[in-house]
Every structure is written in structure tokens, then in C-alpha cells.
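Our example copied in:
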Amino acid sequence: MLKIRCSSLSRIMTEPKGKDEVLSVGAKTYVEDLASEFVYGYTKTIGSKEMDKGIIVENTSIALLNDVLFTSYTKNTERKTNDWLTGECDIDTGSKIIDIKSSWSLPTFPTTIRAGRDKDYEWQLRGYMLLWDRDEAEIAYCMVTTPDELIRFEPTEIHYVDHIDPALRVTRVPYQRDRALEEKIKQKVEAARAYFDEVVELIATEHA
């Protein structure tokens, strides 16, 4: 039974143009890709220098957040799954979910809450709040020094940031739980599941 990763939830949450439809064209394309992966037994891998940095410096970013907030948060390693979603949040404080986003460089670091609002990340957090049964969540954008092997030919002054006040290198974007949006998530996942089954059957029929 298809379950959507919280990190990919935004892919199916876009609104369709037709009033009688549940899934948008983009959502259907995403589900078609998932169906192909399922039938042919592969997983599409996506990589970038920004993603590589996020993985490499994750613990450094958590340490920066702890330094600024005077906390002792640690990386969550538990994956949760319900009837619709699966996900592994970065930090669960017991009352709030925190997702760490390590910015690539100073120009890409959102310096205000308004700049940090992101619908893709918001849906990811809403998925985590549903999975962990939490009423609050936040994105914590952290700007830490980029590893030398990733910088390559870019100016080092936009990547070396240890000299900057730690408080200026963390931007926190809060979200509150919304049960109505959670019902919408369930509706979209169930529609995606039905379409996934339809595509899997279509592939089998056309290659019989």
C-alpha cells in the first residue's frame, strides 16, 4: 500500500486546475514515477552539492541551534509510519518538531521568517506533526561553514561563516498544527494511492 514520504508530500499537495479532480497534473506525474520505480524495482536518486552539504554538516547545524537556544537537542533516528505517511524528522523535543535546513551559502540563507516561508517545507512539517502527534513545528535554517571540498570555485567569503554571530546564523520559521490540512493530506494520499494502483495495473496490462 502506497505511503508518501513527508519529504515528498508537497509533490501531491498541489491543487489541480479542474474542480472535479483531486490530483494535479504534477502530482500524477510524481505518482507515475513511483509506480515505475515499484514495477521495475529501482529507486531514483537525486543529488546536489546543496544536499551533500546538508548531510555532511547536519550535526554541526544542530550544535549551532543548541548554542543559540541553550538546548541539548539530538538527532532523531526513529522513522514513524501511519496509514498515509512515513517520515523521519530531525528533532522531536517532546512537544515540537524541528526540521534542520542547512543553507548552502550566505546569499541562500533566509535572514527573516518571511523569507524562510516555504510551501514544500511546510507540508513536510505538517506530515511530521501528524506522525508524531505534535501541535507545533518549525524550520530551523542554519548557516554553517561549507566543507572545502564542496565550495570548489565559489567565493569563500559566502561560505566561511564561523566569525559571524551564531544568533545571526539561525532563522526559525514556526508552524501550528492544522487538523483541516491534515484531512486534506489524507484525501490526497488516498487519491494518490488509487492512481498508483491504476498505473501499476496499466503497466502490467500494456506489457502482458
